C-alpha cells in the first residue's frame, strides 16, 4: 500500500490554480526531527482557497486533526471521497470567508494523503518507510508546515486555527514562531496530553500491533496486499467512542438491535446492537482511507504533545504566546474536556495576553468541533476581524 | 486451559466448614437459558462467611462484578492469588459483619472460577465448551444462584448486595424473586445497559476476536497451549480506563515516563509513559487469572442487561421491586455515571418503595466501589439494620 492519490508533478502555487486543488511543497534539505530522527527530504501537500492579498496579510492557516487531511473545504474529488471536513465553515460568504481570507490547509507530516509519512517512498531505496519511519512530534509537523511561508510568499499568518490535534499545532505555531503568527484559535485541545489521553492512544497502538497483518509496520509489500485494516478499524472504534458522548449514543442508538425483526431471545455472541453497527461503519470507513502506520505515528505525536517540553515549564512556555487567542471548548467533550480549554484561557489571560473563551453547548462530544459549525463559526468570524 | 482450581468433591455445606472455603452446588437438571440455549447441568461455586442463624434470617448474598469471583473476603488461597475483593468490607466487626450476618458469594454462571462457564467440561463429550457455550444473561446468572436456597436451607436473603455487574444481578434478584429478597443494594450499576456501555463491551469483544490465538473460542486444546492472552490484556485495558477517571490518572501518572533516565528525545513508537505500564500491568494480571471466553460471555450478558425486557417496559419492571433499596453512586464514575444511580432511586421512590441514595465522593471512578469501602461501608451497615 503506497499513497494511492497521485500528487501533481509541480508544486509551485499559481494564482490561477483552481481553488482547493492539492499542491505540494518540497524541502530537499535534511529535516531533523525533535526526537532525534532525520528525514532526507520532506513533502508537504496543501490546498488553498481564496486569493492572497497583495501585501499577503490575509493568509489563514487551518490545521487538521488525527485522521484529517488538507481537504478542509471543497467538494469530493480525486482522493477525497467526501467534501472537506470543514466544508460548512470555509468558503465564499461562510464563517471563514474565502472572499476575504486566503485559506491554507496542509496534510501533516506523518500523514498518508501526500505529505511525507510512513507509507511514503524512502528516497534512499525507493521502498516505503514502513517500520523505518521515525517518531515525529507536533512541533515537527509545525516546522514542516513552515515551508509554506516561502512557497506562498507569506510573512505571517493572520490566524492559525484548528481543533483537537489541529489545536495542538495551533499552540505550537504560536510558541515556535511567535513573530509569524498574528492570532490563534485552539479548539478542543490541550496544553499537554493527559494520562487518560495517552491511555486511549496507547490502547489503539496495541490493537494495531495485535493484528498479525501489521507485520511490525512493514505490510506495504505484503504478498497478499493485506494490511492491518481490522486492527485499524478497532483502534478507530475506541477513538470513536471518546469522540462522542454518552447522551448522544443513548439518544441516537439506545438499545436498538441491528436486526430488529429477529427476537432478542435468539441473540448470539456476535449479533449486534445498532451502536455496534455504527462503530463498525466508522472503523471500516477509516480503514478504507487511512494508513495504519500514519495512525500510529500521528497518535504517538499527540501523546508526546507537551507545550512545556524543553521550555522551562508550562508557565514559561505559555509566556511565548504573545498574540490574541480564542479558545473554544465543548460542554460534552470527554476526550479534551472543557476544563482543559478553560485552563488554556486562564493561563494565557493571567499573562496579560488578550484571550477569549467560547463554549459550544452540544451533546456531540469532542466531534462537535466538526459538527456544530453553526456555533463555532460566529466567534471565529468575529475574532478574525478584531484589530490586531 | 480448563478450570485450574480443583473443586471440592462434595458440595454440601456443613456448619463446621472453614469460612471462605469454596464449596459447590450442582443442579443436574437441564437448565434452560433466557436466550434459548440449554445447559444439561449447572455447577455454582460459592463461599460463605459467618454462621447461618437457626431461623436462617441472617443470610446476605454478595454478587460479584465482571472479572470477580466467589472470593469476596478472606486471605489469598489456592486459586485466589489475592485477598477477597471486598476484604475490607466483609468480616468480623467490619461493615458487613460476619459475626452477625451469614455472607454468601457465588461465582457467576459463565465464569471461570468453578461455576459452569466456557472453559468447563461439556458433560456430553468431556471436552471444554469453548465456542459451544451458549449466550447467557444476568437473569440466567441469578436463576443459577437460586440453587443456593436449597443448598443452604435459606428461604429469603436478608439483602442482596453488589456493584457494577453485581448490581445488575441485585436488581434482577429483586425482580425475579420478589418474595425471596428482603432488601437490595445496587451499587454503580444500571437498569439497562446504555449504548455507550455496549460500545465499550463490543470493542473488547472485537479485540479478543482479533487475536489469532482466540481461534473462534476453541483454544483450550491448542497444541501450544497458547490462548488469546494478548487480546484479553488489551480488552481489559479498554475497560480499565473506563473503570477509573481522568483526574485520578493525571494525579497518579501525569506524563511521567517508565524509563525516567532515558531522555524523551530518544523516544520510539513503543516506549511507554507510566500510564501505559499501568495498563499493561492490569491487562497481564487479568490475563493470568481469567479466561477470555468468560470475559466475552459475561461482557455480552452485561450488554444484554435490561430489566425491562419482557416485562412490559421499564416502569412495569420497576414495579416488581417491592423491597427497601439502597442505591449507591460514585461522583467520578464515567462508566455507570451517577445519573444512572439517581434514576434507579427516582424510579423506585416514585412507586412508593422505601429507597435511599448514597453518593460516594471519590476520584477513583467506577472502581471506587472496590476501593472506597470506608465510604460504602457505613450506609450498608445502617441499611442492613433497618427494620424490615
Describe this structure in words.
The structure is a homodimer of 388-residue chains. Chain A is an alpha/beta fold and 388 residues long. Chain A folds into 2 domains: 23-193 and 306-384, 3-Layer(aba) Sandwich (Rossmann fold); 197-301, Rna Polymerase Sigma Factor, Chain: A. Chain A has 12 helices and 12 strands. In chain A, the strands form 3 sheets. In chain A, strands 1-4-8-5-9-10-11-12 form an 8-stranded mixed sheet, with helices on both faces. Chain A has a two-stranded antiparallel ribbon with strand order 2-3. Chain A has a two-stranded parallel sheet with strand order 6-7. In chain A, α4 runs antiparallel to α5 (229-243), α4 runs antiparallel to α8 and α5 packs across α7 (274-289). Chain A is globular and about 65 Å long. Chain A starts with 22 loop residues before the first strand and ends with a helix. At the A-B interface, α4, α5, α6, α7 and α8 of A face α4, α5, α6, α7 and α8 of B.
What structural keywords apply?
disordered N terminus; homodimer; two-stranded antiparallel sheet; Rossmann fold; Rna Polymerase Sigma Factor, Chain: A; eight-stranded mixed β-sheet; 32% helix
Largest interface: A-B, 56 and 56 residues
**How is the quaternary structure best described?**
homodimer
Portion in strands of chain A = 5-15%
Intertermini distance of chain A = 46 Å
The CATH first-level class of the largest domain in chain A comes to: Alpha Beta
Radius of gyration of chain A: 21 Å
* CATH homology group of the largest domain in chain A: Alpha/Beta hydrolase fold, catalytic domain
Provide mean pLDDT of chain A, rounded: 93
User: Structural class, from secondary structure content of chain A?
Assistant: alpha/beta
CATH-level-2 architecture of the largest domain in chain A: 3-Layer(aba) Sandwich
Low-pLDDT stretches of chain A: 1-16
Return the domain count of chain A. Answer: 2
| CATH topology (level 3) name of the largest domain in chain A | Rossmann fold
* Spatial ordering of strands, largest sheet of chain A: 1-4-8-5-9-10-11-12
